[in-house]
Amino acid sequence: MPIKIPAELPALEELLSENIFAMDDARASSQNIRPMEIGILNLMPNKIETELQILRLLSNTPLQINIDLIRIDQKAPKNTPASHMQAFYHLYSDVKSKKYDGLIVTGAPLGNLDYEDVKYWPQMCELMDWARKNVQSTVYLCWAAHAAMYHFYGINKQLRKSKLSGVFKHQVLDDKNELTRGFDPEFWAPHSRVAEISPEQYQSVPGLNILAQSSTAGVHIAASEDKRLVLITGHPEYDPNTLDQEFRRDQAAGLAPATPKNYYTENKPEKPILMRWKSHGNLLFTNWLNYYVYQTTPYDLNELSSD
């Protein structure tokens, strides 16, 4: 079964060209099944690029999925046309009366800011509390994962001495957990962030388990025992060239960034990129949709537990 997205969304044409099974609204409406309702709160400046990355990860499943793209407020993003936001995005205030099987909250380039200095922090706190009651399982990516740790458990991030950028080897710590089912004992994943939370701080939270981590990059995947909270500090959704684009952008801005580690052949930016995280990124989100969402969500979303 495919993901269902608006016929006019630019990502649809790109997904179809990549032989990814997606259908538009008209075709999906003829199928007599109860699709999964998935929201994507997109906090990244370049909305269109992030949409496509996440939609790819949601496409490898036998489930039909309805997608709602969500924005936190009316503020115009710098790198996305206003017409795109108007056509395809719902304000959080307009969907908070709805219940979802799953929600994905993206990262944001806000790692250097205190949370209270983030302009939409009050709305973000309201949304995280809303998700606990109205979403069966929520994935928080990168900055959003740290924000969730702070909001729910009072655990603040620590700024690193230098930005963590590159692709790092991780170890699966719990191969019996359904979220890491089918993973190799060691796998690669991209990271791009300026802050971190130590494994000991994750371990201090009752009912929260670390599922995968790296000796270099730290905790990568953590999840609550009830499957309703998933924290991912890396970027399994990244395209092959995303880290390269960030590196070249920072170079052009005169920031003298360090070369992303384990990313270019021979660690040389003039060499080809080593793509080695796609399969595990896809498997991670397929497992989430199947085991954390589909297998646990009620058929009638009005029966969703508010615990």
Written account of the structure:
The chain has ten helices and twelve strands. Strands 1, 2, 3, 4, 5, 6, 7, 8, 9, 10, 11 and 12 form a twelve-stranded mixed β-sheet that branches. It is of the alpha/beta class. β6 (100-105), α6 and β7 (135-141) form a beta-alpha-beta unit. The chain starts with a strand and ends in a 13-residue tail after the last helix.
Provide the helix percentage: 25-40%
Question: How many beta-strand elements?
Answer: 12
Q: What structural class do helix, strand and pairing data support?
A: alpha/beta
For the CA atoms, what is the radius of gyration? 19 Å
Oligomer: single chain
What is the chain-wise order of helices and strands?
EHEHEHEHEHEHEHEEHEEEHH
Strand content: 25-35%
> Alpha-carbon distance between the termini?
31 Å
The average pLDDT value, as a whole number, equals 91
- Report the uncertain regions: 27-32
Helix run count: 10
Instruction: Please tell me what the overall shape is.
Output: globular
Q: Main sheet, how many strands, which sense, barrel? A: 12 strands, mixed
